[in-house]
Amino acid sequence: MTARFLGLMVLAGLSLATPVSAQQLVNLPPGSWATDVTPDGEIVVGGSSASDAFIWRWRVDPAPTVVPGGYITAVSDDGSVVCGNIDDPAGSGQGVAARWTQATGWQSLGFLPGAGGLCGGSLSSALDISGDGTTIVGLAYDNGCESFGFRWTAATGMQPLQAQSFQGGDRCSAISGDGSVMGGFAKGNFGRTPAYWYPTTAGTILNPNWQGEVYGLTHNGMKSVGTRWFSGATFSAFIRDGQTGLFTNLGQLQSTWAATASDLSDDASVIVGFDYLGLARKAWVWTASDGIISLNDRLSAKGVAGAPPLLTCGAVSADGTVIVGGAELTGGALGTGGYIAEIPKTKWTNLGHGLAGTNGVPKLVGTGTLVAASTTNIALTLGKPSAPAALVLGTSNAQMPFKQGVLAPFPNWIFTFPALSGAGALSLSFKWPGGMPSGFSMYWQFLVSDPAAPAGMALSNTLKSRT
To answer: What does each C-alpha distance from 344 to 64, 317, 341, 435 come to in angstroms?
Structure first.
């Protein structure tokens, strides 16, 4: 297939894509709050002061879908399951943790046996959900109004999580996408000490003399963020490496305010959070290159004018580009409202998922600005010399099992090539099509016929392109 023909095929396919908003900041209605976003950045959830929740595929749907009768706190990776809180359907007059799907509506997760009704208006609260939507974590009270972190699945029901002392005063605030690690706080020598739990419900307090809490975890649970007192007069944001146990003090946006990190990208290159002093809040974004900078300043540097004061960053997409939280509206006259902010990173991202063959993992590199009519180049190296190959191109990241490896792009288009060069390489150049919506992503991966691969097929790494 010639490069020109490939370019025409890409143009034809992309012309069918639904346009998305080119805005880098979307303000939600007064009284709302955006609480979570799916890893791909496409679905945002939250709630409102009117006791209604919302789910919004914000690039596609013109308005959010209202989910009445509850407040959504977190969403599964594909957006089909959410957790949150509703009024107890048994009529206790208290709030309870709940799970929602389109098919079932809101379903109560219950509460711990013997829980009373005088524990602040809630018997249990759901705070986070695993990527597959099967496990929910949060806080529940016992009959003495002592709080315990909980883990819920359909098979086990609500189980209290155990720290070393199992003395209560705990909360589970976060769960990794794969469900392998949970985080929050437990009662050490202070009221709140960073704590971690595991699917067995066993947990650990790393040091009873530390003060702080875990708020966010990467998909595999190996990196976590939160707030901790290190020294001085106030709390700092932190990131912790689960393999080494090392805590890194990220500091604060303003030295006299306290700071908490609430979430992080899956490669830990972007961390979001906020500073707080009394009731005041200021949202910020941390990167390894420039540290903590307010989200307002980052958007202003991208040319976004007139943004309201952004108060919190509650969650971030897996690639670190889409951030959600809450803002102050019109100097506070309209109260607060949720927001969606987008700060695009590189045009091309290596997502991995390669499978080795004769020369190791075939290497796929993309170059180009992805501006209309600009030259785009896709180059493959390290393939089996003279082997047949195919380029799989998709508009979504499906990550399907394939030939003992992972085929990441959904195969919207497949382009075949009778043979790579004698060096196992192939280079394709074409003009990027015009009229592409801002923020549109595509996924690229090569398949190379190779007897040295586990099932006779080597797979290149996957590239994500983003306009």
So the answer is: 23, 11, 10, 18
H or E stretch including 172?
Answer: strand 171-175
Q: Which tokens belong to 226?
A: 């939160």
* Residue 22 clears pLDDT 60, i.e. is over it: no
The pair phi, psi for residue 298, each rounded to 5°, is -65, -40
Q: State which amino acid sits at residue 42.
A: E
Q: Which two tokens stand for residue 160?
A: 């209290």
Bridge partner residues of 294 (DSSP) = 284
Instruction: Report the distance separating Cα 225 and Cα 268, nearest Å.
Output: 9
Regarding predicted confidence, which is higher, 128 or 372? 128
Asked if 290 and 368 sit in the same domain, the reply is no
| pLDDT number for residue 1 | 32
- CA 138 from chain centre, in angstroms, equals 18
**CA distance readout (Å), 9 to 81, 123, 288, 462:** 36, 57, 39, 20
pLDDT tens digit sequence for 160-191: 998 655 567 899 999 999 999 999 999 888 77
Cα–Cα distance list, 221 to 132, 218, 265 (Å): 15, 5, 12
- What DSSP character marks residue 374? -
Per-residue confidence (pLDDT) for residue 117, from 0 to 100: 65
Residues 365 and 330 in one domain: no
Q: Domain range holding 110?
A: 25-342
For the entire predicted model, the pTM comes to 0.73
Asked whether residue 152 is assigned to any structural domain, the reply reads yes
Give the Å distances, CA to CA, from 245 to 100, 196, 207, 221, 242: 35, 12, 12, 12, 5
